Amino acid sequence: MSDLALLTAAFVCAVCGMAWLALAMKPHWAQVRSATSHTAAVARRLRGAGAVALLLSLAASLGADHPSMALLVWVMMLSVSAVIVAMTLAYWPKCLLWLSWLPDGSGKPTGLIDGGSVWQSGRMTRARSSFPSGSTHG
């Protein structure tokens, strides 16, 4: 594989890893998935996916360069990917919605998969609004 392809894969893995680590935190999860809250098991899966993605990023960096340069590039990638995820959470959190989908042991997704639907009782239903039914919004 070419160095450019390995570094691109490393960068994509770093951004996904940082996003999964951020989504493991309840405030960021609530920003992205406003109608649902995650459980401790989902948070563990997100942290695990984030750690694996960051390790894959390191491995891809090591495949592209010699170790000293690869480590330097990887640390810079981590910094840039953390800023990208932070700015995305600040300005466009729903953009990370696709990363919040992780299958559970039953093969069902953990929540939103089409912009508002959630798995409940083994079937898809629309997510309920978090606003009281009598309130008006302007």
Explain what you see.
This protein is mainly alpha-helical and 138 residues long. 57% of the residues lie in helices and 6% in strands. It has helices at residues 3-23, 26-32, 40-64, 67-91; strands at 117-120, 123-126. The protein has a two-stranded antiparallel sheet with strand order 1-2. β1 and β2 form a beta hairpin. α3 packs across α4 (67-91).
Present the secondary structure layout.
Blueprint: H1 3-23, H2 26-32, H3 40-64, H4 67-91, E1 117-120, E2 123-126
Helix pairs in contact: 1-3, 1-4, 3-4
Beta-strand residue fraction: 5-15%
Low-confidence stretches: 112-138
User: What's the mean pLDDT score?
Assistant: 78
Helix count from the secondary structure assignment: 4
H/E element order: HHHHEE
Q: Percent of residues in helical segments?
A: 55-70%
The number of E-state strands comes to 2
> What is the CA-based Rg, rounded?
18 Å
Query: How far do the termini sit from each other?
Result: 54 Å
Major beta sheet summary: 2 strands, antiparallel
Q: Judging from the principal axes of the Cα atoms, what is the shape?
A: elongated
Helix-strand category: mainly alpha
State the gist of this model.
With 138 residues, this protein is mainly alpha-helical. The protein has four helices and two strands.
